[in-house]
Structure formats: C-alpha cells, structure tokens
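User: For my dataset I need records formatted as: sequence, then structure tokens, nothing else. Please produce one.
Assistant:
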Amino acid sequence: MHRSRVYAILIDTPRAEAARAVAFWSGALGAPTESDPSYPQFIGLHDALPGLVTAVQEVDDEPRFHLDFETDDVEAETARLVALGATRVAQWQECQVLRVPGGHLVCVLPVESRPEVFDAGARTWP
C-alpha cells in the first residue's frame, strides 16, 4: 500500500511570457510571489490556493496547467496512474512526468509537505 495526494498546481508558461504571467497571477489571486534560487524556473504564489503549492513554471513549451502528486512511493503511484491510462513522458530528478488521458501532464514526486499536512490529505491505495 502507498499514499498520495495532490500537492501542487503549476501554471506552465513559455519563458518569454513568465514575468508577465507572474505579475498577472499574483495580482489575480492576491498572492505575493516567492522564489527559490535553487529552482529559478518556479515562482511561487504564496497561499494562492490554501493547501496547495501554486506556482508559475517557466517552460520551453506551450502554456498549460499541470498537477503534482506527492507520494510515499513514487514507483507505486506512477504504476497506479499508468494503470488508469497515463503514459510516462520523462523523468526530472526524482519526479516522474506522465501524460494522462486528455493530454494533460502530471508529475509524481516524493513527499514534499510537512508530515502532518501529508497525513491529513493523503489517500491510501492498495
């Protein structure tokens, strides 16, 4: 058995539009921005959606939204989503990138939340 939960919603934005997108989403959601120099492609929108990390991500691709699932077993969660119809697209660090039916992307990554947050929101899967 393993556990997982939706951890983040990412607003994927072409690099050339990222600054404008950050300004828009920060203003639209009333959320101050925050960044981590270790991951400059992500600009967080602090507390924009309670309980979820929300960020603008600079991408070299088309604009879209994608979800991140955090899990205590990346391989088991990836296998669960593949069994539901997702296909593996890539791996980035410890994160598995999947394309789900309908064409959207999701990422599966190890638990990032504080233990009490993960425990409160995670579902258990066989």
